[in-house]
Amino acid sequence: MGTSTAAGSLTDRNLQRLRRLLRAKDRMDAAPHEDWPVSRLAQVSGTSEAYFARSFRDAFGIPPHRYLLTRRVERAATLLRDTNLPVIEIALQTGWKSLGTFGRTFRDVTGHSPSELRRRSRAAQGGLERVPPCFVAAAQRPHLKMAVSEKRHHDNGNITTA
Amino acid sequence: MTQGVQVVGVYVHDQDEALHFYVDKLGFRVHTDVRNGDYRWLTVQHPDQPDFQLGLFRPQPPQIDDDTARALMEAVAKGAMPPLVLVVDDCEAAYEAMDARGVEFTQSPVARYGSVDASFRDPSGNGWKLVQAR
């Protein structure tokens, strides 16, 4: 490799750390409907629990639980668009325990109720069949730059500080 | 073919490791492997695609400064590089064979949208979609 210097091995260790954190992200991507407590994610990436959440956020710009939420919402939105499954079934398949929590969170994140989103996305199709479907879904994944509760307050006009 | 795309490269953290992965685990062949000091031009080829080379390049000085090279390798390790798609005749069979050779799959084969797809990563973090030809 030619990078046997101290700085080189530090870089290598950092890259290996990021690569392991990516593994935790990949595992959530593969099974977003499953429960992903920090203990499980930390184990996947070979870090301590105390260290995991912070290093994940530093690496990917979003806390792990919020990332998981974006994947669940993305998956639910895809199922709403592409299937005729009842909303309750989609909620259960994408990791929610109740229809109420699903509907509320989904609306907070996307701005639409699940059934509204189903109607809208079906009306707005076209041209994307040439793009591999997973990349289309990823592009339509919600941005969650703030916590859902914070977003709800913000959208309601309750934010007083800039 | 006389005109068209000939080489597209991915950034890798370690070219020896990448060579082992793409050749021994994915079944690519080495097309060119030449060195000049620290620099190494390394390309591999899918056996069915003699007109196309996949470059396995390491971002490094003097072409790229140290900080930028580090940032690029971090981006790869974080899975932030562009999509790569490998088309196969039989996704399930390719998955079985590659999995047995120790390829890190991030998604097992799923039948959907009239095809079957799976996902894997190379050791550096480049993400590939394995898609069954329709």
Describe what this molecule looks like in 3D:
The complex is a heterodimer of chains A (162) and B (134). Chain A has 162 residues and is an all-alpha fold. Helices cover 67% and strands 0% of the residues of chain A. Chain A has two domains: 2-61; 66-155, Arc Repressor Mutant, subunit A. Chain A has nine helices and no strands. Chain A is globular, with a radius of gyration of 19 Å. Chain B is an alpha/beta fold and 134 residues long. A four-stranded mixed beta sheet of chain B has the order 1-4-3-2. A four-stranded mixed beta sheet of chain B has the order 5-8-7-6. In chain B, a hairpin with a 2-residue loop joins strand 6 and strand 7. Chain B is globular and about 45 Å long. The model of chain B has no long low-confidence stretch (mean pLDDT 96). Chains A and B meet through helix 1 and helix 8 of A and helix 2, strand 6 and strand 7 of B.
Short description:
The complex is a heterodimer of chains A (162) and B (134). Chain A is mostly helical and 162 residues long. Chain A has helices spanning 6-30, 38-45, 49-60, 64-82, 87-93, 99-110, 114-123, 133-139, 148-155.
Largest sheet of chain B: 4 strands, mixed
Number of strands of chain B: 8
Instruction: Report the average pLDDT across residues of chain A.
Output: 87
User: What structural category do the secondary elements of chain A indicate?
Assistant: mainly alpha
SSE string of chain A, helix = H, strand = E? HHHHHHHHH
Low-pLDDT sequence parts of chain A: none
Global Rg of chain A: 19 Å
Globally, the shape of chain B reads globular
- Based on Cα principal axes, name the global outline of chain A: globular
Number of structurally distinct domains of chain A: 2
How much of the residues of chain B is beta strand, in percent?
Answer: 35-45%
Total number of strands of chain A: 0
What is the helical fraction of chain B, as a range of percent? 10-25%
Helix/strand order of chain B: EHEEEHEHEEE
Oligomeric assembly: heterodimer
Assigned CATH superfamily of the largest domain in chain A: Homeodomain-like
